Amino acid sequence: MNLFDLTGKTAIIIGGNSTLGGTMAVGLAEHGADVAIVGRNQEKSEAVAKRIEEVGGRAKCFSADATSAEDLQRVLAEVLEWTGRADVLMNCPGMNSTTPFFELSMEEWDNIMNVNLKSVVLACQIFGKHMVEKGEGGSIINISSVSSEPPLSKVFTYSASKAAVNNVTKYLAREFAPARVRVNAIIPGFFPAEQNRKILSPERTESIMRHTPMNRFGDAEELQGAAVYLASDKASSFVTGTLLRVDGGFGAITI
What we know:
Elements: E1 10-14, H1 19-30, E2 34-39, H2 42-54, E3 58-63, H3 69-82, E4 88-91, H4 106-134, E5 138-143, H5 156-176, E6 181-188, H6 202-210, H7 224-231, E7 243-246
Parallel strand pairs: 1-2, 1-4, 2-3, 4-5, 5-6, 6-7
């Protein structure tokens, strides 16, 4: 048995045109999944689709605002028209900010919460409902962050949003379990993605390295194994409600 064979599965990657989301999308495609890349930036989505095609996979781009229920309903219908299936949902939109707490406006708070949390809830409602009603099981993978437990300095709203993602993950794991729809989260450590480069000063980088036993940043490809594992209903059939760390040991050290 090939535990990691995703042939015949359709994976919907919301935020699949991002640095980490796109790389995980390629990993799922390499293991046989048809991949729906969902995002607002079509140029970036098409670049990911091209990478997938170069490794022999199949992908299609879908334009949507991840915070719009109407857009996500449309994407579900379009994906079903494309392959007839929706087996794996990965939620990886992300917005960050270094605004100090006393300077934080509620407009910025709402924007970050909408992208990081509301999008996850909406996608789980829409795609999760389809999986539950279809009765064939499924896998939902939410992308959390090491800032979720405990929070990181300088990223207050981001940390709060990712802590909520962890809670949503565990809640829905219990809610969807009778329908064999598994809900898990990946907690990435520090990867040089676009959204966190702006806060990686030399001093911050030094602090991160002191708290990362492997003493380096992660490469985006190092998230592919976790994504494929959680997507596979063979490899992780009894895994739900889990927060899987891929962080170089960051969560295993305090001082």
